[in-house]
Amino acid sequence: xxxxxxxxxxxxxxxxxxxxxxxxxxxxxxxMAAVATGTLATAFDTSLSTIGWASTGFLLxxxxxIPFTTWAVDRFGGKRLWLAGLAVFVVGSLAxxxxxxxxxxxxxxxxxxxxxxxxxxxxxxxxxxxAGPRHAGRVMGLMGVVLSLGPVLGPVAGGxxxxxxxxxxxFLLSVPVxxxxxxxxxxxxPDETPADHARTRLDVLGLALLAxxxxxxxxxxxxxxxxxxxxxxxxxxxxxLLAGYAVHALRARRVPPLIEPRLFAGRGFVAGVTIMGxxxxxxxxxxxxxxxxxxxxHGHGVLAAGLLMAPAGLGGAIAMPLAGRLSxxxxxRGLATAGAxxxxxxxxxxxxxxxxxxxxxPVLAALAIGLGMGCxxxxxxxxxxxxxxxxxxxxxxxxxxxxxxxxxALGVAVVTLVLQIAGDPIVxxxxxxxxxxxxxxxxxxxxxxxxxxxxxxxxxxxx
Length: 463
Known about the structure:
Blueprint: H1 10-34, H2 37-43, H3 48-76, H4 78-97, H5 102-131, H6 136-164, H7 169-172, H8 174-188, H9 204-226, H10 232-251, H11 267-296, H12 302-330, H13 333-350, H14 360-387, H15 393-422, H16 425-446, H17 455-458
Helix pairs in contact: 1-5, 1-6, 1-8, 2-3, 3-4, 3-5, 3-9, 3-15, 4-5, 4-8, 5-6, 5-15, 6-12, 6-14, 9-10, 9-15, 11-12, 11-14, 11-15, 11-16, 12-14, 13-14, 13-16, 15-16
């Protein structure tokens, strides 16, 4: 086994920091706005269901934009597209902060979502390309810090802003941060020469099927979570559109499809996205259930509940950089197995927590489940990118991110359904973590399908 110099070039570290700063904007804005639903409904004198479209519109815009980003990154180059995404996001943030009625707020939140739909998959694409197979695990681990802390910091930051400032500052604070990220990106993100296949025409029919198909599925799941409403139509429409895309992609000849079907011929890729999808479902179910437990069972407010759930994100932020770095040297399987076992034991511990349990125990269990999930997430992502040929990195990143969006929506929907069926908060809380445990057991059975030989170790990296 050849030794690996795991030191990262300072220029690469600077680029990683700037990319993660921009990537954090979308994650924070999505979760910050979720805690302000009541405040916004009062401010605009409208119903909770109507103001909910400010968050739903953002989510749908993100999901619908991702397939376009898959094509555009090679057509226009990563740096130009990244700067364009930041500009759209900053304009959307400024406009949302100045919104004069509920309709304008929903429209400007959707504009923010378009910017986030460009930025979010580009975080994966730009970092994977910059790191290469040799440092894929370590760089994905660093990115995991943002993925772990973003959903936790958002509600805390949103609660703090609402306690101290007007609701408009939830959006306006993104403007100076976005401008700073834009100026830094101009300096440290390297220019890219468009790929050889950059002149390929856009698969318009594929985009018309894939983007609304995934958006419809996310809409169905988010509506079932928020309103328990009518979800059959978007669910059936989304499934039909995705089935239509699959047929189109398999028959495409003149214009390459947005997502190549051959991407799913690789066992390692399918195993990787399956682990990340199921892990995302378990993670978002945990992050959604914990604050409800602290609020409904212990009577805490939004800000206190957010702080008490923070150890789950902190555990992931600690584990992912370390696990990613180790996976570059030792491979993914062993670390991922250990992480899934730790997360599974932590989920089992949550099923024993009751109303009279001292709060230190759920805090420790949350830290442990975050550590476990971080230990299997970063090595899996590193393994996935080491096995992807260079031309398919953008497509693989988009698939991974769309499944993450779907897993998040499904996790929230399932938690809501379980709590509604259970009636009693403690019974529902236990049911949620039995479900999370089941997901983690499935992950354990899939981990052996990850590649056993890492290109970074053998020196035979994918091109």
